[in-house]
Amino acid sequence: MMPRVTSSGSGDITRAAGGLGRRIPEALAPLARLAYTYRWAWAEGGPDLFRAVDPERWAACGENPVRLLEEAPLAALERAAADHGLLERAAALEALVQADLARPADPGAAQGVSAEHPVAFFCAEFGFHRSLPIYSGGLGALAGDILKEASDLAFPLVGVGLMYRQGYFRQRIDAHGRQQEYWVDTDPERTPAVRVTGADGAPLRLSVPIDGDDVVAQLWRVDVGRVPLFLLDVDLPENPPAVRWISARLYVGDPQTRLAQYTLLGVGGVRALHALGIEPGLVHLNEGHGALAALELAGPHAGEDALAAARERVIFTTHTPVPAGNDTYPPGQVLEALERWLPEAGLEPDAFLALGRTDPQNPGEDFGVTQIALRRSRAANGVSRRHGEVAREMWQGLWPGTPVDDVPIGYVTNGVHLPTWLGGPMRELLDRTFGEDWLLRADDPATWAPLEQVADEELWAVRRAQRGALVEYVRARSVADRLSRGEPRPYAEAAARAFDPDVLTIGFARRLATYKRLDLLVRNPERHLRLISGDRPVQLVLAGKAHPKDEEGKRLVEGLFTGKNEPSVAERVVYLDDYDLGSAAELVRGCDVWVNLPRPPLEASGTSGMKCTANGGLHLSVLDGWWAEGYDGHNGWALSGETASDPVAQDTRDSLELYRLLEDEIVPEFYEHDAGGLPRAWLARVRRSLMTNGPAFAASRMVRDYQRRFYA
Fold first, then answer.
1. Which CATH number applies to 119-165+195-411?
2. CA 279 – CA 300 distance, rounded (Å)
């Protein structure tokens, strides 16, 4: 039996903050304490407070507050310590954070959940801030938003994940549009993470049986506001080199390593909670990567009663209707990876393998982590209404004889954490219009009703300010990215000269899977060139990564670059390397139109468009995922969400409709200004979008839906 840690690492957080505070001028000690809770990241003025210490160092260290205070020159620290305004802001922010942490837990409608028995939220990636890069894309950003919203609502929740020392790959695009991948090491001790220790002060150690080895793991704690996130890490000298690699990279291509990661997350995650003295009221599996937690939760040598009781404490959310997103493994590989764990859990190999098959009686079928998660959870959901329908069809085989509509998979449509994604001008407008604490009631349409009274002049000023900020960002980034590709200097500087804060700005930034159909934007070169070079031009901001093994996804970007020397392309189209949470925030705040072109029904939800609409941008998307329930005919634009047996014909149809909307509706509406210089029809659509999409797709609505419909 492993010793429990009654403080769950909170004392380690306090000690780390105190140690950092002793290394800097005493007056800056509040900054050291703030650095170890990410609550500053979504507090008004929080990022600006740290930036004010040393703006250049803040940018150089990736907005990591711990590194900032460790690396800033003494002169900068002393200057900050003598800045009474900065110290007053630091004291005010610390008071806000302390008041936030002091609130009593509020489980809402969740049953069996309390401060003593929180929801344990398992996920393979968490994207809550760019300074801790343990995420790849939408799933991680969604998980990060859930942690932050739970903190805001005082909902008792803890996160469980992995501390990837190299995270997800970094991206560089060459002059031909080819993606180059590289990885950068993260030193957890130079981030707002702390190693959890036991009562003896030594780092806590766990043992997890993987591939026949007793793998030794340690734990890191990160405070995301009032929500602790625990991250398992096996990069320890006690483990052989190949074992230490298990927690090195997110979504590695090697199946054996990936299966080991999922064992570490599921089995190790439950053991970590036990060692920490945390008995969860519920376990929420966010995707199937942590599915083994549903069995480990029953305890060692569990019988049927214990397994059934554990199942009643598990909720499962599936995020993808794409087969490649639902990992499967040959039975022999699964048994080899889990040969030590299965006897400990009291599971017979054949019965265990049957749990992971759609058809339990088919010994030739591979083992799937999604299947085992669906079978071992009391409730399951997709992440939009449409995705719930697709998931019921996709997994009907697990409930043979059950009509599709009765398959027990519901839905909770995703939402976004508004304080994270709102730009400064829009946040200021909404604060002024909605009143105090409006974010706690952001899911109530009545909260957004006062937008009817906001003058068009105010709304347009906000949009111009945020578009202008994006243009400045693009000007700087485009030069750096193009020069790094080896482009000639005139080409590298073209967008910096031509990008205009008064030009219609369209964004497309996604994970570059082929079903996202980035190529529809340039399928008709003549119409594409007319759009960007006409009297009423359009400027395009593009970004995204393809998985290192996805060659077709990589070719999408190469296809874009074949026309880079056409007239106006260098001036009006930019592709930004290395899309991450930081660049995503810039894009969703500044773009006028967010484009999403998935081949239906393969978009589970999508959240980037939600973030853009919250900032007064407008959504142009296929009626798939969240947009199938968000679009009302007046709050954006839509392409058909019908499925088709001929994908080539479907792509041609959708490309034609995309250009028709752009040429006949979107561009004219943006540029048609009245005598007062305002695009009244455009602003009416923006207002409608804010009032409908704002409350419907706020993370507060999402978390409360989980409380009422799945945690209850």
1. 3.40.50.2000
2. 16
